[in-house]
């Protein structure tokens, strides 16, 4: 577990009262309690292991950085306000177990990926650019080109393929803008006005390849008369239709 040290410790009045050996004991003991998860307790028997003497601990007590006490019947020293600046041991244990669980899940996923790769033969992919084996909607690297989408892991090469498609799209867009800017026939939208064979103005998409072409005029619509038997049937229907007489009410 990591323990915290204030960046203003070098100028703290309590710290300045201590000798260099006492300061070294405070820093070393802080690392020790963080490793052993003692919640800030330093046993008296550990002073020699930490390379310090009792007088160094006494100076820390006199300065107010440590407090004398005991833990489970063993005499020692407590860091002053340790839990105000550092996490308790129970919190560290929870984080440790969570990290172990994450590692276990990651190993399980890696094992499943390895088993899938061993059981599934990789198809042969040919080509030199990502466009040869993938699409802008689903960019892939060469190794993951033919895998099902749900089996594609997080891959740096796939990200590079996505970046390649983005750069190609930007290059094509810039090329279109340059062609429109250098063309003398079309407007800013790439549209140009030409004529058809009948002399009518026609708006077309400019190809920027030279003079505008002449568009064939659409063929006129020819209305063919109905066949004679159909015309005779309509005439009979019209001749037999009775006129409608509307009687208006007289006003008295």
Q: Secondary structure elements and their pairing?
A:
Elements: H1 13-16, H2 20-36, E1 41-43, H3 54-63, E2 66-71, E3 74-79, H4 82-85, H5 89-119, H6 156-182, E4 191-195, E5 201-205, H7 228-240
Antiparallel strand pairs: 1-3, 2-3, 4-5
Region (Disordered): 120-141
Biased composition (Polar residues): 120-132
What does this structure look like?
Residues 120-132 have a biased composition (Polar residues). Residues 120-141 are annotated as: Disordered. There is one protein chain. By secondary structure, this protein is mainly α. Among the domains are: 9-87, Arc Repressor Mutant, subunit A (Orthogonal Bundle), CATH 1.10.10; 130-182, no CATH class; 185-215, no CATH class. Helix content is 42%, strand content 10%. It has helices at 13-16, 20-36, 54-63, 82-85, 89-119, 156-182, 228-240, and strands spanning 41-43, 66-71, 74-79, 191-195, 201-205. A three-stranded antiparallel β-sheet has the order 1-3-2. The protein has a two-stranded antiparallel sheet with strand order 4-5. β4 and β5 form a beta hairpin. α2 packs across α3 (54-63). It is elongated. The model is unreliable at 114-120 (pLDDT under 50).
């Amino acid at each position: 577990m990591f323990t915290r040290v204030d960046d203003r410790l070098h100028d703290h009045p309590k710290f300045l009262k201590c000798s260099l050996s006492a300061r070294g004991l405070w820093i070393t003991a802080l690392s020790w309690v963080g490793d052993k998860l003692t919640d800030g307790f330093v046993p008296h028997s550990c002073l020699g292991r930490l390379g310090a003497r009792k007088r160094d601990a006494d100076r820390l007590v006199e300065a107010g950085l440590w407090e004398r006490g005991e833990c489970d019947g063993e005499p020692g020293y407590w860091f002053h306000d340790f839990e105000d600046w550092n996490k308790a041991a129970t919190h560290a244990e929870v984080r440790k177990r969570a990290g172990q669980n994450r590692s276990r899940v990651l190993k399980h996923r890696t094992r499943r990926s390895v088993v899938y790769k061993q059981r599934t033969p990789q198809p042969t992919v040919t080509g030199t650019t990502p466009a040869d084996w993938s699409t802008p909607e689903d960019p892939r690297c060469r190794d993951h080109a033919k895998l099902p989408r749900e089996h594609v892991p997080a891959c740096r090469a796939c990200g590079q393929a996505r970046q390649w498609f983005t750069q190609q799209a930007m290059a094509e867009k810039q090329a279109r803008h340059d062609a429109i800017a250098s063309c003398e026939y079309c407007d800013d939208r790439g549209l140009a006005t030409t004529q058809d064979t009948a002399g009518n103005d026609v708006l077309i998409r400019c190809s920027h390849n030279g003079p505008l072409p002449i568009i064939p005029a659409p063929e006129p619509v020819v209305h063919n008369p109905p066949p004679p038997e159909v015309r005779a049937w309509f005439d009979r229907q019209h001749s037999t239709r009775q006129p409608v007489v509307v009687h208006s009410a007289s006003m008295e």
